[in-house]
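Standup notes
- DV: blocked on the single-chain target, sequence here:
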Amino acid sequence: MTRITRGVDLVLRLVIILAFAVLVACVIWQVFSRYVLESPSTVTDEMARFLFIWVALLGGAYTLGQRRHLAIDLLPQITHGNLRLSVNAGIIIAIATFAALVMIYGGLDLVNRTLATGQVSPALRLPMGLVYVAIPFSGICIFYYCLTFLADLFRTGRGPNDQDGAPRAGGPLD
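- DV (later): unblocked, structure below
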């Protein structure tokens, strides 16, 4: 499973780097064409917006996979033993449920409906469903990372936000 996770990490990292590089180039060209040439480019404006969507969603999935996401970890920090294991499992399951229902199921529905209506972007003439593919794709990555977190949790007793390297055993809130 770690080989697959490294592959997912690599693909996400490469896509994010490429999208971000193109996004920066689009913004630089947009600023140059607007203020120097006095003729703003609508194509790079639209492309930058779409790339920002992809970078944000894929970056969120990648950050979760690296265990560097923003987290309010009060409950896992004040619990110990089996209660801590249960709290961590509940948090991971909640994230996985959101990814599965909202991002994957809902995102695929959005993509299919948008493609069926034939909606295209004004400047790039790109099918909008392709832009929205970022939602279910990110959801699949998040769901996969949640599965690996659950496997790690039950194998090692450590949750995704446990920093000390050791499972917490025993305590007043067991």
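- Follow-up: The two ends are 31 Å apart (CA to CA).
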